[in-house]
Design a protein that fits this description.
- The chain has 3 helices and 6 strands, in the order ααβββαβββ.
- It has a two-stranded antiparallel sheet.
- It has one domain.
- The protein is of the alpha+beta class and 123 residues long.
Amino acid sequence: MTIFKRFIRPALFSLEAEKSHNLVIRLLKSNLVPAVKAIDDPILSSVVFGRQFQNPIGLAAGFDKNAAAISNLYRLGFGFIEVGTVTPRPQSGNLKPRLFRLSEDDAIINSLGFNSEGLEVFR
């Protein structure tokens, strides 16, 4: 059993879902999460719309809404990362609680409501 499954995941799941998510973003931002050895095999490389990607594994928008930890997310081996949702102006999103775990289904319901620090953060 991995350290993640035995210790880290249970600790994160003991917290409310949004607090757990925010803690992970802060940890990634702080450089406390070690880089993983990315698989660098040319067979995984692809070019899409003229852009080359090291591998086809990406992180979809919604995980790092304000690009707070983007450089350290790349250190985890992602071939590409999409940040956001970015809104023109800051907005707080829906009232809390707004993330709900469905543990028996290994799923989560996201009702964040496009919380964003706004476009100026990205300039």
